[in-house]
Amino acid sequence: MKLSKNRLVMLLGPTDILGDDATLEQERVMVMLTKISRNYINSALFYYFEGFKQQYLGNKEDIESKIRRDTEDQTNGIKQPVVSNKQAVIVRLLQLVCDIKPELHHNLTLQKKFHGPFVV
């Protein structure tokens, strides 16, 4: 950030008393002051935001406990239908596995239809 000589004179006073080396030093001082003021503003905004966040959201432990409770509620909501339908699903799976109907495969019946009987 390079400041003009007029700007330096306005901010820090006349520079002709100190010479050209002083303008470089004054420019360095201005850069440091600008950085310090930005850090102060950023830190003030940071603390304001943190206070705002804590006021409306709570602290980290409160947020973690709320997330944990919500997760437990959702898993319990998922477990209830599983438990209530478990026996019916097992019975249906056993029916499908044990109900064997010997039939020819569909592709074999199509092959017989188009190409005649299968000869070994």
From TrEMBL:
InterPro entries: V-ATPase_G. Transmembrane segments: none annotated. GO terms for molecular function: proton-transporting ATPase activity, rotational mechanism. It comes from the Eukaryota. The keyword ATP-binding does not apply. Keywords: Hydrogen ion transport, Ion transport, Transport. The keyword Protease does not apply. One of its GO terms (cellular component) is vacuolar proton-transporting V-type ATPase complex. Belongs to the V-ATPase G subunit family. This is V-type proton ATPase subunit G. The lineage of its organism: Eukaryota, Metazoa, Ecdysozoa, Nematoda, Chromadorea. The gene is Cnig_chr_I.g585.
